[in-house]
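Ticket #4471: structure export looks truncated?
Reporter: QA, pipeline team
Priority: medium

Steps to reproduce: submit the single chain below to the structure queue and open the exported record.
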Amino acid sequence: MEEKLKQLADKLGIATTYSDAGLVKKEYEIPDTTIRFIAEKLGYKAGNLGEVEKSLADFEKRRWQRTLENIYVVEQGNIHIDAVVPNEQTQSYFALKVENSDTGISSDVTFEIHPTGETSSIGKTIYAKMLLTITSELPIGYYNITFTVGDKSYKSKLAVAPKECYENELLKEGKAWGYAVQLYSLKSEHNWGVGDFTDLQRFIEICARSGANVIGLNPLNVLVHTFPENASPYSSISRLFLNPLYIDIEAVPEYKPEDKEAIKDKLEEVRASELIRYEEVYPLKIEVLEKLYGRFMADLTSQRQREFHEFVEAQGEDLHRLALFQTLYDIKSTYRVGGWKGWEDEFQNPNTPEVRKFAEEYADKIRFFKFLQFETFRQFKQVEEKIKECGLKIGLYRDLAVGVGKDSAELWSDHDLFIKDLGAGAPPDAMFTAGQKWCLGAFNPYVLKERCYEPFIKILRANMQGAGALRMDHVMWLTRLYMIPDKDETIGTYIQYNLKDMLNIVAIESWRNKCQIVGESIGNVPEGFIEQLEAKNVYALSVLWEERKDMGWGDFNAPWEYRLKTFTSVGTHDMPPLKMWWFGYDIALKYDLQMITEEEKTNDYHKREQDRWKLLHALDINGCWPEDNLRKGDYLYGEAYPEGIEEAVHTFAAKTNSKVFLAQLEDILHVEKLQNLPGTDIDKYPNWRRKLPIALEKLEDDIAYIRNINAIHKAR
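Actual output as written to the record:
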C-alpha cells in the first residue's frame, strides 16, 4: 500500500488490516481500491497520489479553520475545550457564557486558559491552539456556549456527561431475572395472528406473578408498510417510530365488534397458523384501521383529535417525513422497482417542489400514516402504565438495532448523514464462520459529529422510551463498524467512530431517561473495548454457548466465573433453542441449505457430541439437575432428549454471578426451530415468523413452564 494512502486511511479511521474472530483467527489486508473507495465516501478523494496528498492536507487543516468545534463532549469534572485563534490574539480579552439547552438559562462560568504550544499557518496567518478549562461545576446535560475573543464571539455546543451510565436501583444491591421475548411470537386466543401490545400487557401480568422484573424485547421499530414480508425487526425504515403491526385492533377506541364479522374465518385461520403470515395479517389489520381512521376523522372536535394534533406537533418533521415516505413508497411501488432509489430523481429528495406538491395531493393518506403512529404510541403507553401497575422494577428491556434498512425513511430523509454505497455487516467469528452481511445503513462519523450527534441522540431517546434498560445491538459500532461496499460484497473493512464521544452521549441519555445500558458484544471485539464499557458502567450481554474456555472448544465456564455486570441468557434469537442444539438440528439445517459442506457437517456433529458431554458435566458438577429428575444417562448417541435438562440449564444460568438472567420461552417450551438463521432470506428459511407453541392463556398451567420457573426461583 502506498505510504500516503495508508496515512490518509489512518487519519480517517479506515482499517488497512484487521483480524477476524473465527476459531482459526485470520488476518486481512485491505486492497488499495477499497480504501480509496471508502475514503471518497467519507468525503475525501483518494483516486491518485495527488488527490491523496490534497485530502491529507485538507484533513490536517480542518481543525485550524474554525475557532471552535461544533460540539465538545466531556465528562463532569474534566471539562476542556480547545480553541483556535490568530496568534496575535492569544493575549486578548476572553469571555465564556454557557446556556442550558433545556431551560435557556445563561450563566457566566469560571475558566482558565492555557496555551498548548500548537500552531499552524494558513495563508499568511499563524494560528495558535489554546485549552479552555471550565472550573465551574456543570450538571449533566447539553449547553450552548459562546466564547468571546476581543470583539468577536463564537458559538458551539457542550455535552456534559456523568462518569458512568445510569444503573437501576435493584441491580445496585441485588439480582433480577426475566424473559427474552420476540413480541410478534406471542400467541393468544384474542390476537390477529401476531403478538400485539395487549398480549404484551397480559405477559407483563404473567411476569409479575412469576416474580420476574424484566422483559427483553426484539426491536419494536416500524417496518416497510408496502411489503410486510420484509419482517426483520433489525432492518427498520425508522428507528424513531414504532411498528403498527403491534396495534391491537380491538383496543382502538373507534373499533366496533361488528368490524371483524366479515373476517372471522380469516382471523381464525391466521391465528391457527404455525408461522406468522405477515402478507395476510398486516393488510387485514390495515384494512380495518382505515375504516377506524374514517370514524376518527368524522369527529374533528373530539378530545382524541386534540391529542392527535398534539402528538403530530410534538413529533414534528420526523413524523411527517416518515408518513410522506410511506405514502410515496406505497404509490411508487405499483410501477417502480428498486425502492426509493428507483424513484424518479425529483422524488429521491424530500425537499423538492415535486415532493411538496405530492404531499399536498396525498395529505389524507399521509395523515393516515400519522394516525397509525398515534395509535401505536398510545397503546405502547398503556404497556408502560401496565409495567408500573405491576411493579416490575426494570420493566422493558428494549433493543436498539445497529443500523437501519438502506431502503428506509431514515436514508431517504437525510442522504448525507449516512455513508453512501456501503452496508454494515460483520467479519467471520466463532458463531458465524462465514461472516454476516446485514446490508444496513450506518452514520457517517464525520457528518454525525458536525450535526452535534443530534440524530444519534434522537434515536437513543426514541428507543429508551418506556424502557428500564436498553440493549445496544452490536455495541462495538460505537468504536468501529465493519462496512462492505455495495459494489463488491466480498471485501469489507472497519471504519472508526469516536468512542469517547459516543459513550458519553449514551451516558447522558441513560441518566436523563433512567435507563440501564447493555452492550451486545458477541463477535469480533476490539482489545480493551470491554474494559472501556465496564469503566462506563455499561453492562455486557452474555450467552451460555459463548461462555466457554479455549475459544469455544473447552469447558463451559462455571457460574462463579461469569462477570457480575451482565445480562445472561442461554442463547439469542440467532442461536438454536436448547432442544434444537441438543439434537444438532441446526447443523442439519445449514447442510440442507448448502451453507456448510459434508465435511463441515461431520466435523460439527463431532464437536456437538463433545459439547453435549461438556454441558452435562457442567450441570453435574454444579448440582443443577432437579432433585426429582436426576440425569439418567449420557445421552451421547441420540438416545433421547434428557428429561429435566432445560430445568438444569436454567438452574445453571440462574446461579451465575450475572446481575440479570433472561429465560427464553423457546427453551422452556421445547421449541426445536430457530427464530432467525443469519445469512438466509425468506426464500430459504422463515426468519422472524415463529410463534410460541402455547397461548398466553395456557402458559401458566403448562407443566414445563411451572417446573422451569420453580427451578429459576430456587437458584436465583
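Status: closed, not a bug. The export was complete when the record was re-opened. Leaving a note from the reviewer for reference: The mean pLDDT is 95.
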